[in-house]
Design goal:
The chain has two domains: 44 residues; 60 residues, Membrane-bound Lytic Murein Transglycosylase D, Chain A (Roll). It has three helices and two strands, in the order αβααβ. Strands 1-2 form a two-stranded antiparallel sheet. Helix 2 packs across helix 3. It is rod-shaped, with a radius of gyration of 31 Å.
């Protein structure tokens, strides 16, 4: 009788382990699907490459106008773009002169 009881307890433990394993696996799959569906529903932003070039300043150009033209809204604000232009070109102020050249940067989805 003792042997029968032990075998029954072993079978119960084994069933408990199997059921627990299925519950854990099912929960993991459910959570994985949740993340996969959340990831799939968002739009991936296109790859943008950062490039540098030199431009000749025309009469009436300002750093702010240049920033509005070249700053990509997903990457950098106009204000931060102006600050970056100042650093890149060693400018202590926003003052620029027609005929001078400055280095600017821009973003493009095309790899060049």
């Amino acid at each position: 009788m003792r042997k029968s009881r032990r075998n029954k307890q072993r079978r119960q433990k084994m069933m408990l382990i199997i059921v627990t394993a299925f519950v854990i696996a099912g929960t993991g799959l459910g959570i994985g699907n949740l993340f996969a569906s959340a990831h799939g529903s968002s739009q991936e932003s296109p790859v943008l490459y950062k490039y540098y070039t030199s431009v000749k300043l025309e009469k009436g150009d300002t750093l702010w106008d240049i920033a509005k033209k070249y700053a990509h809204p997903d990457r950098i604000s106009v204000k931060d773009y102006v600050n970056e232009l100042r650093k890149m070109n060693n400018l202590s102020s926003d003052k620029i002169c027609a005929g001078d050249y400055i280095t600017i940067f821009y973003y493009d989805s095309e790899f060049k």
